[in-house]
Amino acid sequence: MSVQEEIKQQVTGNRVVLYMKGTPDFPQCGFSANAVGILRACGVDEFHTVNVLENPDIRQGIKDYAKWPTIPQLYVNGEFVGGSDIMVELFQSGELKKLLDKTTA
Fold first, then answer.
1. What is the pLDDT of residue 105?
2. Which of 13, 73, 88, 95 has the greatest number of beta carbons closer than 10 A?
3. What DSSP string describes 24-73?
4. What pTM value is reported for the model?
5. Class for the domain spanning 3-104
6. Are 43 and 27 in contact (CB under 8 A)?
7. How many CB atoms lie within 10 A of CB 91?
8. What are the extents of the domains in the chain?
9. Residue 55 has pLDDT above 50, yes or no
């Protein structure tokens, strides 16, 4: 399986996926910690995470997949939502919670 196929399987096989540096309990950068905090603040207790520090191919591959240069990256229902800055904006406007609430319905 190619890296792109593996990423597609992760993104489409889980409702909420966060590609991040580190893990939810031990994030390795402030942006990843912020992304986890936002998801939890939206009431999302269970989400799939991929620690890009464990696999350099995934780390580069996810940037190519989304055509987005930074980590973290959030996917909901197979669709790219954005990175940390976009998550903050959507959270502050209430749009992220609405989007995430649809995934649990």
1. 47
2. 73
3. SSSBSSHHHHHHHHHHHHTT----EEEEGGG-HHHHHHHHHHHT--SS-E
4. 0.94
5. alpha beta
6. no
7. 19
8. 3-104
9. yes
